[in-house]
Amino acid sequence: MQGPTSHTYFSQRLRLHYVNWGNEDAPPMLLVHGGRDHCRNWDWVAEALRHDYHIIAPDLRGHGDSQWMVGGSYNQVDYVYDIAQLLFQTRMTPVTIIGHSLGGSISLTYAGLYPETVTRLVSIEGMGPPPQMIKDLIDIPIERRLQQWVDDNRKTSGRIPRRYSSLEDAYERMQNENPHLTEEQARHLTIHGSNQNEDGTYSWKFDNYVRNFSPVGLPVESQYELYKRISCPTLLVRGTESWATDPKEDGRADHFQNVQVASIGNAGHWVHHDQLDEFLILVRNFLAD
To answer: Which of 72, 160, 163, 271 could make a disulfide contact with 201, Cβ separation 3.0–4.6 Å?
Structure first.
């Protein structure tokens, strides 16, 4: 696989990283990874689509080779700003976007803010927790949510990033986390998702503080209003073995102007890894419509 080139850009004074797969004369495409992941998790998708699109894929702040936040407070609106800045600075609009999990949620929010800049949108399990879970969270008094956030950050401040004695040990952890991964996939994700420490051990690249979600953010009804503003064709994808619920069945798909919903069997949360070929067929058909 001929890999991409690495680049940096700045957002809110952070030095952030992205990769560029070339083919500058083709239509732009943006790939946005999920939480505790990195831009090279898209390599198989990018390799398959690079001849038809000019693809870039960022490392979100606190992930991959992008800078960590000072203070360690990660909020989704800041991720959205980073994506807006990346597209603004690279002049990569109008753009087709594919996002996974946290990246899917960021992509949906961005497309609702700037619908005129997005031509097609694919979100893989990017709608957050199921509606019932969100309702349960909303019912928790704000003081308890804030106290839990304080407690979580305090615990994270004392958490030492796990160190693996070898790259092989880190690979085994990656493989055990998602049994659907092939050996090649697990090794590739491990190599690009870890750094070697000074003592020779290995640790994951992401900042542990990204584990702590902000107790405040966009109200769910406001998020639904943004979904209504998305004017481009939108494809919502989920794996049938995942925790994510079907957005068509739970009603969330009703908030979109032009939406398709697809469930892929024998796949968990990382649909584009677990069933790559089926995912690519689905996406190519969607993009060709």
So the answer is: 163
Considering the domain boundaries, does residue 167 fall inside one? Answer: no
CA distance 133 to 188: 34
Map residue 123 onto helix, strand or coil: strand
- CA-based torsion, 35, 18, 236, 182: positive or negative: negative
Per DSSP, 15 falls in state E
Instruction: Indicate the DSSP class of residue 284.
Output: H
- Identify whether 206 is part of a domain: no
Domain limits at 118? 5-130+212-288
- CATH label of the domain that carries residue 234: 3.40.50.1820
3-state secondary structure of 268: coil
The arithmetic mean of pLDDT across residues 61-69, rounded, is 97
Residue 1: band (very low, low, confident or very high) from pLDDT cuts 50, 70, 90: low
Q: What radius of gyration, in Å, describes the C-alpha atoms of the chain?
A: 18
220, part of any domain: yes
Q: What is the pTM for the complete model shown?
A: 0.97
Res 137: pLDDT: 86
221 within some domain: yes
Per the structure, the count of domains in the chain is: 1
